[in-house]
């Protein structure tokens, strides 16, 4: 068990004078995100009223989630008078149709609840992210995914068959528009939340270790051979762990639980790791996140990245490289390792490079072809002007991917430079902008950050002293690096177009073989030599005696309670004067995201009202999730008078149709709940992200995925067959538009990754049966 995460929204005066952060406690630009107020709708009616009021007042609005897990400033409405609309209380499962195999949920339903409620009906969402703490809205809003090349793919949004969208409307509309999208509606590709599910099934998971000499040759065939495959690569050791993960007969013995190591309730002082082979039902193995919501224990234990315990502080660079180019990219990385063998030792403290499969999607901001997703987590200094050891190598890898191979960045992670020219990489990018304009003509759900990312405004690259150290710019001058510490701007080692930070001083660190250290000896986040020895002792003992290491791990896990993540939105005056952050408590540019208000609708009506009110007031709005897990500033509405619309309370499973194998949930439903609720109906979403803490909205909004080359692929959005989108409307519309998109609607492809610019109420996903072998 663990101490639960704190609320991302903090207000100093009721629900006004708020701030919002992410689950890490900091945005990439290290700024504070403020908002004038926060709203917590508990129903559709309250949400509609909140949007209508925000529109009427012209407020910038952003939807927020329970844990605010995105790294970028997605939840920041901009300015200091915006409105945060939390989906924390929109956490109900509205309907499960076991015949149709569908499940309708509110957008604040977490992945954990989505999974568990589906499982009660013997249904499953086959592919999901790995983290329970995501909400439905968060998953859809960031394109969250698991890993597969099979079926519809691993993106959660591709299993949505219906969606209710609440958006600003005109005065004639009552300042709010409510759209009901269903499968077949073109707009559903822009949004997506009724899920199409499957019957619940079992999986077998085991790992095979090899050297990485044939990784480039095997990467494509391995993903097509194993449905839920993923790969963990340790390039410094030249080792690869292949996850052999496939369906097995429901009669196969085993009722195991796969609890992904980084998402466990972990002791704050030491994290003992062990890998296990597991056979178990889909809802018990597809995602995890036991550090999310356990008992309070004075922070003795917590999620590893919890900022309240000065936990892991890191960057995440995550991108998808076309499968056809993956071998060449891997060979380039291997060439860099040959040049500097110790340079990537540091990432092995953070579980190496996780590689997940994603398939082509019809979503306007989905993948154009089959791809492999590289997820790299690495040390970040508390001091933005302190360079990292071997920083030049990781910078060159990032620029190789983004600019040589045209990689697509994950919408919920990454630093600013990863988003340079990103919309031009999507063949349907212009179509997405058309739908965005139709849904939010006043731009109330847009923020300065999201407009910069979409190429609508300049300023994505923040050029200043030391900006290249944090990925805020590509260096063109030495001052962008750290010349006083002998880090200069020079061409890359194997990619001449890359602009790297070269350390011209010859330095040797004996401990660098095992621990990545900051350049500066006075960095407060560095381990002491005693801590180094203790950690090394644990690693050595685990390697020399696997049984002992496993016993230590099991003993620690059996007694550990974890501090839950803090809420990303903080308001100083009720639900006004707010800030929002992400789950690591810092954005890439280290700025604070402020908003004028936060709203927490609990129903579709409340969401519609919230969007209408925000549109009427001319507020910039952003939807936020419960844990705010995206690294970029996706949640930041811009300015300080925007509106944060949290999906934390839009967490209901609205319907599970066992016959149709669909599941409709609210956008704040977490992946953990999505999986578990589907499993109750003996259904499953086959491919998902690995983290329970993502919400449906968050996964769809960032393109979250699992890992597979099978079926529709691993992107969650490709299992979306219906979506209700609420967006700003004209005065004639009452300042809000509500669209119902369904499979077949052209707009559904644009809506699959839309969370950054509008808000949806529920999603319909397609699931699978357990007898499907």
UniProtKB/TrEMBL annotation:
Pathway: Cofactor biosynthesis; L-ascorbate biosynthesis. One of its GO terms (molecular function) is D-arabinono-1,4-lactone oxidase activity. Keywords: Ascorbate biosynthesis, Oxidoreductase. It catalyses: L-gulono-1,4-lactone + O2 = L-ascorbate + H2O2 + H(+). Residues 31-238, 584-773 form the FAD-binding PCMH-type domain. PROSITE patterns: FAD_PCMH. Its EC number is 1.1.3.8. It is an enzyme of class 1 (oxidoreductase). It comes from the Eukaryota. GO terms for cellular component: membrane. GO terms for biological process: L-ascorbic acid biosynthetic process. Belongs to the oxygen-dependent FAD-linked oxidoreductase family. PANTHER family: GULONOLACTONE OXIDASE, L-GULONOLACTONE OXIDASE 5. This is L-gulonolactone oxidase.
């Amino acid at each position: 068990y663990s101490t639960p995460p704190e609320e991302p929204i903090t207000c100093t005066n009721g629900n006004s004078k708020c701030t919002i952060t992410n689950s890490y406690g900091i945005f990439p630009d290290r700024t504070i995100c403020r908002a004038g107020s926060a709203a917590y709708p508990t129903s559709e009616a309250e949400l509609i009223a909140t949007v209508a009021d925000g529109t009427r007042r012209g407020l910038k609005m952003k939807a927020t989630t329970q844990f605010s897990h995105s790294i970028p400033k997605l939840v920041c409405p901009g300015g200091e008078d915006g409105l945060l609309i939390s989906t924390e209380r929109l956490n109900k499962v509205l309907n499960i149709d076991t015949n149709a195999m569908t499940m309708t949920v509110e957008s604040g339903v977490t992945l954990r609840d989505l999974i568990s409620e589906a499982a009660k009906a013997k249904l499953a969402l086959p592919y999901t992210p790995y983290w329970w703490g995501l909400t439905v809205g968060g998953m859809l809003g960031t394109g969250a995914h698991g890993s597969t090349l099979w079926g519809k793919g691993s993106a959660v949004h591709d299993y949505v068959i219906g969606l209710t969208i609440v958006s600003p409307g005109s005065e004639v509309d009552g300042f709010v528009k409510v759209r009901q999208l269903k499968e077949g509606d073109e707009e559903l590709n822009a949004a997506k939340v009724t899920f199409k599910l499957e019957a619940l099934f079992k999986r077998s998971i085991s790992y095979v270790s090899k050297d990485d000499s044939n990784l480039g040759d095997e990467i494509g065939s391995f993903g097509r051979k194993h449905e839920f495959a993923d790969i963990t690569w340790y390039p410094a050791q030249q080792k690869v762990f292949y996850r052999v993960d496939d369906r097995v007969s429901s009669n196969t013995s085993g009722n195991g639980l796969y609890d992904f190591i980084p998402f466990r309730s972990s002791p704050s002082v030491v994290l003992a790791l062990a890998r296990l082979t597991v056979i178990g039902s889909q809802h018990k193995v597809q995602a995890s996140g036991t550090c999310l919501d356990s008992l309070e224990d004075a922070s003795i234990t917590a999620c590893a990245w919890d900022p309240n315990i000065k936990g892991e502080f890191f960057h995440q660079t995550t991108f998808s490289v076309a499968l056809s180019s993956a071998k060449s990219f891997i060979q380039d990385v291997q060439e860099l390792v040959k040049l500097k063998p110790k340079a990537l030792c540091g990432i092995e403290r953070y579980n190496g490079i996780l590689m997940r499969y994603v398939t082509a999607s019809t979503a306007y901001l989905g993948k154009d072809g089959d791809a492999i997703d590289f997820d790299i987590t690495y040390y970040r200094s508390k001091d933005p002007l302190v360079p990292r050891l071997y920083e030049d190598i990781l910078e060159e890898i990032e620029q190789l991917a983004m600019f040589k191979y045209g990689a697509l960045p994950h919408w919920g992670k990454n630093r600013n430079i990863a988003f340079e020219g990103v919309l031009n990489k999507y063949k349907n990018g212009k179509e997405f902008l058309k739908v965005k304009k139709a849904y939010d003509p006043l731009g109330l759900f847009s923020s300065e950050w999201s407009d910069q990312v979409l190429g609508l405004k300049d300023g994505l690259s923040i050029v200043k002293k030391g900006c290249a150290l944090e990925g805020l710019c590509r260096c063109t001058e030495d001052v962008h690096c750290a010349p006083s510490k002998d880090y200069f701007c020079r061409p890359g080692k194997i990619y001449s177009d890359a602009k790297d930070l070269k350390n011209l001083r010859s330095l040797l660190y004996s401990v660098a073989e095992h621990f990545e250290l900051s350049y500066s000896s006075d960095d407060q986040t560095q381990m002491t030599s005693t801590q180094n020895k203790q950690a090394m002792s644990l690693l050595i003992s685990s390697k020399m005696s696997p049984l002992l290491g496993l016993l230590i791990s099991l003993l620690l896990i059996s007694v550990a309670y974890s501090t839950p993540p803090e809420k990303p939105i903080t308001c100083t005056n009720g639900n006004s004067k707010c800030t929002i952050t992400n789950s690591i408590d810092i954005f890439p540019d280290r700025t604070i995201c402020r908003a004028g208000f936060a709203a927490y609708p609990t129903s579709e009506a409340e969401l519609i009202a919230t969007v209408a009110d925000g549109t009427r007031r001319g507020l910039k709005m952003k939807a936020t999730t419960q844990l705010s897990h995206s690294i970029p500033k996706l949640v930041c509405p811009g300015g300080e008078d925007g509106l944060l619309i949290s999906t934390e309370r839009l967490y209901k499973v609205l319907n599970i149709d066992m016959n149709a194998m669909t599941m409709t949930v609210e956008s704040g439903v977490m992946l953990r709940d999505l999986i578990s609720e589907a499993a109750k109906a003996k259904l499953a979403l086959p491919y998902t992200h690995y983290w329970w803490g993502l919400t449906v909205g968050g996964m769809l909004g960032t393109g979250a995925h699992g890992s597979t080359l099978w079926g529709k692929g691993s992107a969650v959005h490709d299992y979306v067959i219906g979506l209700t989108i609420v967006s700003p409307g004209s005065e004639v519309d009452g300042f809000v538009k509500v669209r119902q998109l369904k499979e077949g609607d052209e707009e559904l492809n644009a809506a699959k990754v839309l969370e950054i610019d509008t808000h949806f109420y529920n999603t319909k996903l397609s699931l699978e049966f357990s007898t499907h072998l």
